[in-house]
Write a structure and sequence with these properties.
Chains A, B: GO terms for molecular function: DNA-binding transcription factor activity; transcription cis-regulatory region binding. The structure is a homodimer. Chain A is mostly helical. Chain A has 9 helices and no strands.
Chain lengths: ~210, ~210
Amino acid sequence: MRAPQQDRSRVTRQRLLEATVDSLVEFGWSATTVAVVAQRAGVSRGAAQHHFPTREDLITAALEFMFDSRMEQARREVTELPEGNGRTEAVIGRLVDYYTGTLFKAALQVWTAAAADPELRARILPLEERFGRVAHRTAIESLGVDDSDPTVRRLVQATLDLARGLGLADILTDDSRRRTEIVRCWSAQLDAALTSLAPATPPASPAL
Amino acid sequence: MRAPQQDRSRVTRQRLLEATVDSLVEFGWSATTVAVVAQRAGVSRGAAQHHFPTREDLITAALEFMFDSRMEQARREVTELPEGNGRTEAVIGRLVDYYTGTLFKAALQVWTAAAADPELRARILPLEERFGRVAHRTAIESLGVDDSDPTVRRLVQATLDLARGLGLADILTDDSRRRTEIVRCWSAQLDAALTSLAPATPPASPAL
């Protein structure tokens, strides 16, 4: 059994991580310090620093926590996806929702800061590699396709690239109306391409 | 005839704009001040402030200058594009080059800062609107397609969204190898889709 002390510590940690993501989205990278996050989370600065000695510790932990929660949610939701017609559009719609949500907007602040800061970049690269790998695998599983075919693999990667581009198109304005049309159009393309690549149904057994 | 004084002023202005873009890419938004840019351009701070009273003036002028140069270059290069097979891949390759180049990396710093700064956002929105419109029209002209068909219009928009996503995938690591495969794969898809949408060749005139 977990002692109450450990529970409190876990709750504090989680509040700090969520406040970090909110602060990144609202105030940006420069303004998101341990002190600002601690205040937002209603946690003393000392307690925050006990959990996360540096701003980089706090921010990378926050992105990992959010990403893992999101991917776990996506895997749970796979069973709710429609089979057959409409599955591709439902998967792409959800995928694009992730890339236009809070996690993406927070990560964009960190990635952009890392582009102009070699130390931060070294710290973020392993996250980028893991996030890319897990997001690709989750998309493959949700679409229910076989990515041993190189064209299928590239089409799924292109879909993730598209989703990332749609995420970026949404950071200054609400791009949801245009995006809905793009998702529908891309889904139809992807469906047609995946169908043409799918292994043909094996012929029925001969009548002997 | 232009007076030497005007020429010097124009050269100073252009050096400041180029130094701004370089500084955004190398040092990021926060560090790109008029003083830093003036020093980088070898211009006195007073002269820099004569041209651009505020950092926002300098940075928006720099993005507009770079964007207009890029689009002008793209329009000049249209005549060099191959006709028929290979044109789509050539156009998308160039498009993606723009989104992985210096201008995109500089603009990303500004867009990301604007996402967490309402005043800057208000200043950047008209640029975003214009850049999006001109980039779409240039892509349509380069591909040589008719975007009065709504599916063609969406496919071209999706291509720009994909290019933006590929740009973002390149900011921390050199993603060029994977990107080449994605460009080839999407170009084949887009070619097939545009061909199926193209108006059929009109039948030959009857022999009367």
